[in-house]
Design goal:
heterodimer; A: alpha+beta; six-stranded mixed beta sheet; six-stranded antiparallel β-barrel; 10 helices; disordered N terminus; B: alpha/beta; seven-stranded mixed beta sheet; 17 helices; 17 strands
Chain lengths: ~400, ~500
């Protein structure tokens, strides 16, 4: 059974098995795979609701090995990182992680990701899209080495309220003292594991970074320890629900990288995306700074906003109207949030809507009821991100479950 | 830090001097800093000039700077001798050629006049700042509109002809109009000299037109040697700077352009001395200016990439031969002082010579132009297609090999010259690069080709003289409209800065 399923993933889809593939195949009762950077990644293993609720109530494992990872090391590593991203990396201490964006020369966002500072001169960048040529352009002329380590590091996201307790069960001393965005080194079943308290769920959780050769050993240890902690393997769809609640944006869904757009006006600035808090205009020159200085003085031509919609039908692909008549924007991600019990979405609104004009906004939702389509105008309101906030995400030490 | 100078100009090449003169005459305090011990840049070293041949200083600039125009432009245009594979050389002045048949004479005159009219239409942009690609000012667009109007005024037939040929190659055009031979060889040399392109390369008609767009009181495309030689031009320009109150310091190489709060604040010399200024102009090539003097840390990654990828592979070596007694031509008669001698018997020979250089090799038979300086008893040769990235490097051996191959060609036309040579010197593109701040050793600081002209010169995003760091301007041949000793980049840069009013 397992061998046959593996061949489906590898041969029929032309996808590469990741470091945890043998275990994922066993778990993937739906045999539903998606292509994530050439890897076979599960979209749903058995039931998206069970997987989602495990994120919020138990613990979950998600294979994040396909994420692009770059090692940036050398005497000028800090300078190069600071030149790349819009945040002030000089303030990032060794053993800490920062969520960052980076921009092109026009001030449009190229991608977002997390910067791990492993030491004074060693960094790791994790992001969605391949960035090697971009990094090499930014680093040109500096004393720094850049290596694509995507295939050299296996990653597991262990997320959920019981995740800390699970790691404690494995004997990870003082894991409960690891603060949000902190990094620490541990050993699980004899395998070296770098653990960062990071994640894409907005919940208590960790990301584990392992040598691919040790991947299955660590997986088995976690699954073993997770039996009493409700540990469940999840796929992309459950994570997608959690990330919308958690207020995270997804490239290609909510916005496009400036590197991939064909129409120049489709690229987005940090100010349009609500990322102004990530832009440190007062630090030395970084990519796009001059454009961003100008943009920071202007009203964004549109804005990505979080909205809450009345009633319960998710507003997938919906248009947004002002006074039910004037089309002013559209929804990119939508969800009936099972935890918040709110109908939530992200939407692009053209200026001045979503900025100076925020009332009388409506979402046009399409419903299919037994073949017939219905159109429903639902009132929506701008709300603050994230939709889901829980003190356990950042509590140190986290409560025991 | 209170600014001591309104402007510092890095490099006392002719463009730097023109820029300094324009600014000084507007009452700005200027300081020109020159790394070498002489002013004039590639024109300036009397013992071994990079650019020994006649120049094309725009008459408008000479007028504005109130230079002695009679002295600079008064001499009669330089005569070109085009050496074929045998027989006496053709003698060419402008559109007039002698030594060939009547039909070719007529065809050549017609072609020269037509190209001249077309070149003049394009030449409207020479003293204009090119328009920006994203947002152009009204004034900038007016320049383009004027050029479009001039092109239209050529008449339907000639405008269509211009649009037909402008992106094509000199090979096809010249074969169609006058056929291959020494006459086509001269025009093809005009189209390719200094560049990494052969007559068959696309865009060589444009470079030919570019060269023909130069202006003098004698008409378009004609070069005039100023009374007193290149040194006289350099002196006229540097006198113009100093008489307007500007300072010039030689032997003062700049190590770094100083930046504070994203604004140029002066320079630091290699000696460690720091000099403050409200604006900094660089006459060095764009790559040297931006990547060495300014530093990539002040620039966006895409900008640096475009700068790095700018085509600037130098192809010209300079050779000087001291000749005790200039022998007679094989065909009889003597070489005269100041004549331009072109040794490119056919376009085929030029293209063959380029083939070797494309792959980093030295051509077996170089094509070159030469001029004889009777006062110094010196034959100055500019040998084409000697690549900057020569396989094996520019060793003394490579240089003497080049000198020998040039001498072999000269010997055919001037038998006995080899034995009359008392001394010789070779300056490779690498020497030009290190000696004159011209990356790649490129004469024009960057290839003159369609993707590096106008609003794309030196490259996209750097085209209006203003650099991303405020108060820093490019004023050298890397900027629009490019090289050719026209003075136009320096002139345009200074006027752009005056319009900005930052100083």
């Amino acid at each position: 059974m397992a061998a046959k399923a593996k061949s489906i993933a590898q041969v029929a889809m032309g996808l590469e098995p990741g470091p945890f593939h043998d275990r994922l195949v066993d778990q993937n009762r739906q045999q539903s795979w998606v292509n994530w950077m050439g890897y076979a990644s599960p979209s749903v293993l058995d039931n998206v609701e069970f997987e989602y609720f495990a994120i919020r109530n138990q613990s979950t494992l998600f294979d994040i090995s396909p994420m692009c990872k770059y090692a940036i090391t050398g005497p000028d590593a800090e300078t190069v990182l600071n030149r790349l991203v819009t945040r002030d990396i000089r303030k990032l201490k060794p053993g800490r992680v920062a969520y960052c964006i980076w921009c092109d020369e026009d001030g449009n966002v190229v991608d977002d990701g997390t910067v791990f500072r492993l030491s004074d001169t060693e960094f790791r960048l994790c992001c969605q899209e391949p960035q090697l040529s971009w990094l090499e352009d930014i680093a040109w002329g500096f004393d720094v080495a850049i290596h694509d380590v995507t295939r050299d590091i296996a990653g597991l996201a262990l997320q959920g309220p019981t995740s800390c307790a699970l790691l404690k069960d494995l004997g990870l001393a003082s894991i409960e003292t690891l603060k949000t965005f902190g990094i620490a080194e541990y050993e699980i079943s004899g395998a070296a594991v770098t653990i960062s308290r990071t994640g894409f769920t907005g919940d208590l959780g960790y990301e584990l970074w392992i040598k691919p050769a040790d991947a299955l050993t660590v997986w088995d240890a976690l699954m073993d320890a997770g039996k009493l902690r409700g540990l469940r393997v999840i796929g992309y769809e459950a994570l997608e629900m959690a990330r919308i609640e958690a207020g995270f944006l997804l490239p290609k869904i909510d916005f496009l990288s400036a590197q991939t757009v064909l129409r120049p006006d489709r690229a987005n600035t940090p100010y349009e995306l609500g990322f102004e808090w990530l832009v440190a205009l007062d630090k030395p020159h970084f990519n796009g700074r001059r454009a961003l200085v100008d943009l920071s003085k202007q009203t964004p031509r549109r804005k990505l906003v979080a909205i809450e919609i009345e009633r319960d039908k998710p507003a997938h692909n919906a248009l947004v109207y002002h006074r039910k008549t004037r089309e002013v924007g559209q929804v990119t991600s939508a969800l009936w949030s099972p935890t918040c019990k709110r109908n939530i979405a992200y939407a692009w609104l053209d200026a001045p809507y979503g900025q100076s004009v925020t009332d009388d906004l409506w979402v046009e939702i399409y419903l299919q009821k037994e073949i017939r389509w219905q159109r429903r105008m639902a009132r929506c309101q701008l709300v603050a991100k994230p939709f889901f906030v829980h003190p356990r995400r950042s509590a140190t030490p986290p409560a025991d479950f | 830090m209170s600014a001591r100078y309104d402007a510092i100009i890095i490099g006392a090449g002719h463009n730097g001097l023109v820029a300094a003169a324009v600014l000084a005459r507007k009452g700005k305090t200027v300081l020109v800093l020159e790394a070498r011990d002489h002013v004039g840049g590639m024109l300036g070293d009397a013992s071994f000039r990079v650019a020994p041949l006649p120049y094309a200083l725009r008459p408008e600039i000479a007028r504005v700077l109130q230079l002695d125009q009679k002295r600079l432009h008064g001499a009669k245009p330089v005569e070109t001798l085009a050496f074929g594979s045998d027989g006496p050389p053709l003698r060419i002045i402008g559109g007039h050629v002698t030594g060939t048949d009547a039909i070719t004479e007529h065809d050549y005159a017609t072609l020269h006049a037509r190209l001249g009219r077309q070149a003049q239409a394009l030449g409207v942009m020479m003293l204009q700042s090119p328009p920006g690609l994203s947002k152009a000012s009204l004034g900038e667009m007016a320049g383009l509109a004027k050029m479009a109007l001039k092109m239209r005024l050529l008449g339907k037939t000639e405008m269509r002809d211009l649009l037909r040929i402008i992106l094509s190659n000199a090979w096809d055009l010249l074969n169609d109009e006058i056929g291959d031979g020494p006459l086509a060889g001269v025009l093809a040399m005009d189209a390719t000299l200094g560049g990494a392109m052969g007559p068959r390369s696309p865009g060589t008609v444009l470079t030919l037109l570019y060269r023909m767009a130069s202006q003098s009181t004698h008409g378009h495309g004609l070069r005039v040697m100023p009374e007193g030689g290149p040194g006289a031009l350099v002196k006229a320009l540097s006198d113009c700077v100093t008489s307007a109150g500007g300072e010039i310091r030689t032997g003062a190489p700049v190590a770094k352009i100083l930046v504070d709060q994203d604004k140029a604040t002066g320079v630091r010399l290699q000696s460690g001395e720091e000099i403050a200024a409200a604006t900094v102009f660089s006459n060095a090539s764009p790559k040297v200016t931006l990547m060495t003097l300014l530093g990539v840390e002040h620039l966006d990654g895409e900008f640096v990439r475009r700068c790095r990828n700018m085509a600037s592979k130098g192809m010209v070596s300079r050779l000087d031969f001291d000749v005790a007694e200039m022998p007679s031509l094989t065909s009889g008669g003597k070489i005269e002082h100041g004549q331009r001698l072109v040794f490119a018997p056919t376009m085929q020979v030029i293209e063959t010579s380029f083939n070797a250089a494309k792959y980093g090799d030295m051509p077996e038979r170089p094509v070159f132009e030469a001029t004889y300086d009777a006062t110094a008893k010196r034959l100055c040769v500019s040998a084409q297609f000697t690549p900057h990235d020569l396989t094996g490097g520019w060793t003394d051996e490579a240089k003497s090999k080049l000198a020998n191959s040039v001498m072999a060609v000269l010997e055919e036309a001037l038998p006995g010259i080899a034995s009359a040579v008392t001394a010789s010197r070779v300056m490779s593109p690498v020497d030009i690069e290190t000696g004159y701040g011209a990356s790649g050793g490129h004469w024009h600081h960057g290839e003159l080709r369609v993707d590096q002209l106008l609003m794309l010169r030196p490259f996209d995003g750097a085209a209006q003289y203003r650099m991303p760091v405020k108060g820093l301007y490019l004023c050298g041949a890397g900027a629009h409209p490019g090289g050719d000793i026209s003075g136009a980049p320096g002139f345009n840069a200074a006027r752009t800065a005056l319009r900005d009013g930052g100083n």
